[in-house]
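Hey, can you fold this?
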Amino acid sequence: MPSFSGNELTNEHIDELRDAFEKYDLDSNGTLSANEVRLALISVGYEITEAELYDLIHSVAVRDEERLDLKKFIRMMAPRMANVDSDKSLCRTFNMIDRDRDGYVTVQDVRAIMVVLGEVVTDDDIKDICQAVDMDGDGRISLRDFVGFMHSPI
């Protein structure tokens, strides 16, 4: 497997990144602008805020450079490709827990999964779990909350 900055990429990952790069090099100049990078990231399953986008670009680009060639794009994405794969798995898990498919996990959903797992928990335990996973504090657990919690250091 090719290695970039200590992160292993499969040939499939490299091909996927190359395809995304070529597809979103809209002006065909061999580099991606910040907007083109964002589109390419979304196409490989990586959602990102504008601030995160510029942090990523600046992690591999020379100071004040805001265009990436293919090599820098792959180097930027290498550590994130494993997260894309794990995020797909987390999404499937979230969808299994979200029984009514409304995009949010409720206290009842958490209680039901605990029963399925054979865990004996109190109502207070379930409330604590839900509060811990509700990363944005809006009183409900979205997919973003769930993935963010699962990626957070414990």
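Oh, and this one too while you're at it.
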Amino acid sequence: MSTERMPNPAVLIPEAMEALMGVNRAIAGAGVDGKLLALTHLRASQINGCGPCVAGGVHQARQHGVTADQVHAVAAWRETPWFNDEERAALALTEAVTRLADRPDPVPDPVWDLAAKHFDQKELAALLLNIAITNAFNRLNAPTRQQAGKW
């Protein structure tokens, strides 16, 4: 197993960590169900292969009432019966936003329109910020090879 290269950069620059955590607090206070935030965090972190964020996402998901079936199947959410339409819309948006470079139209209209059907603009803003901040943490943890369980 590879070893950690250095501490997470935001740990080395405490003001950066404070700012990132401030964004997290703002997202949490925006009125979106914590379950949705946890599912989107977990899915983005799985895509990016961020061990600490996957582990944290599972913990967060359990705290917000995500079922064991959902936690275990979030990577295969399309092929399971355990997600409602709102959760599916949020997960589709998460995948598109996390994989921006994978297609010429990064967030196709059908993905956006489905999300906009289930969430108002403030809720969409919170979801997009949650996906973005998750991707930011993933991009700090992955290159420095942060390990899950080392807090």
